[in-house]
Amino acid sequence: MLNKQALLQKRHQIEILRQNSSISLKHADQLGESIASSWQRSNSAEIPEDRAAAPLISQKHIRKSALEIAIEHCGKDLKHIAEQSSMVVAVGDIGSTIIWSAASGQMRNAAERVHFVEGGQWREDLVGTNALALSLKTQQSSCVFSNEHYMSSIHDWVCYAAPIIDPYSKQILGVIDLSTTWNHHNSLGLLAAERCASIIQSALLEYQQQHLFIRAFAVPQVLFNGKIVVLTPRQIEILTILALCPQGMNLENLHQALYGERKVSIGTLKAEMSQLRDILGGMLGSRPYRLLAHVEADFLQAESALDAGYTGSALKLCRGVFLSKTESPFLCAWRDCLESRLSEAIFKAHDTDVLLKHLAHFPEAIDAVERLIELTPIGHPSHQMLMKYKDEH
After folding, report:
1. Which residues of 95-111 are buried (b: 16+ CB within 10 A; e: fewer)?
2. Are residues 298 and 317 in contact, defined by beta-carbon separation less than 8 angstroms?
3. What is the pTM of this model?
4. Residue 297: in which H helix or E strand, if any?
5. Cα–Cα distances in Å, from 353 out to 152, 240, 359, 391?
6. Which InterPro entries match (predicted)?
7. What distances in angstroms separate CA 249 from CA 235, 254, 271, one per listed residue?
8. Who is most buried in 112, 154, 162, 362, counting CB within 10 A?
């Protein structure tokens, strides 16, 4: 741990950099590239100068996420860590909204004042540079020290964050953050955050004893308990329909959803269901047909992200067309609805980096091009390039 004098000197150096109107390469090197980039994004986000606390929302749960259920299993351990280390521990979802927190007596009041509690929205465009949002942005462990934070109300904090990764799908489910006062800064803080992330990941592993993960964007794929299952396109369509209808479907309704008016016999669908039951080891229920394993899917995560207003997260998940070759009327209708919602979200987006990455995956995404044109100054060279791109497509 650095001594008090060294920490004071570090704060002083950061404050000098904060006073500069622009960040040079030398300054970026002193700060670290991720902090310097975050400062630039924060400065352009039009965050109110007098903002001293994160926006607070009441959280509505239609169904508990795997992350929330895992925290129920390991919350006591995390709370003990917070109390023993004089810290506040918070878990955020993929949109940087805190879904669970615990604090020591020393940090509780400070956390409540700045809304570093359940329901606090710690997105970078709302509160500026902070470890929780930075870790999600970079998908790496992050430390934000003292006045590296954008909001002056947390300049007395040091925060360590690490992403929480699904042990099966390997996708980021959220982030955990450990925060204390700046004078207790310790180089082992990041390791502690990573250790807490591993505690949650172990709880996820224990909870998801029978776990089915469906990828439906770009190249469709199904993982059962972490292993790729070889399935036909039709079988993947069936699992996707059942994932979208967790209450289950009878044979006739499933046949209609899958084949529509195509002349395919009920017996063909029965044979498909029998093969799936053998592959999934009894995790396929009948009367009605339903999935008995814990189900996660990239399209369900994208839908949840859109429901929560996390446009950037939704676009990152949609890395290809949803089941591009399907002829299922049910799935085609669902895809049309999703694409309509995505387009609406794109026209409300402000993050040009996210839109450019989306365009890289979808060169035909004219809605993203049009939004980028709106966000780019008319005299800027990129504006002319985007206009030309639009005309060519």
Report:
1. bbbbbbbbbbeebeebb
2. yes
3. 0.76
4. strand 294-297
5. 27, 30, 10, 22
6. GAF-like_dom_sf, Sig_transdc_resp-reg_C-effctor
7. 15, 6, 16
8. 154
CATH number of this structure's domain 209-346: 1.10.10.10
CA 203 to chain centre: 19
Q: Does the N-terminal peptide bond of residue 55 adopt cis geometry, omega within 30 degrees of 0? A: no
Fold of 4-207: Beta-Lactamase (3.30.450)
Element holding 290 (H helix, E strand): strand 290-291
Nearest-5° angle of CA 30, CA 35, CA 39? Answer: 110
Do residues 129 and 39 touch, judged by C-beta distance below 8 A?
Answer: yes
Classify 164 as helix, strand or coil: strand
Rounded Cα gap, residues 375 and 357, in angstroms: 15
55 secondary structure, DSSP code: -
- Each residue's pLDDT expressed in tens, for the chain with a length of 393 residues: 567 888 888 888 888 888 775 555 455 566 778 999 999 899 988 899 899 999 999 876 556 788 998 999 999 999 999 999 999 999 999 999 999 999 999 899 999 999 999 999 999 999 999 999 999 999 999 999 999 999 999 999 999 999 999 888 888 999 999 999 999 999 899 999 999 999 999 998 877 667 899 999 989 999 988 889 999 999 999 999 999 999 999 999 999 999 999 999 999 999 999 999 999 877 899 889 999 888 989 999 999 999 888 888 899 888 889 999 999 999 999 999 999 999 999 998 888 888 988 888 888 889 999 999 999 988 888 888 898 888 887
- Left (φ > 0), alpha (ψ -120 to 50) or beta: where does 163 sit? beta
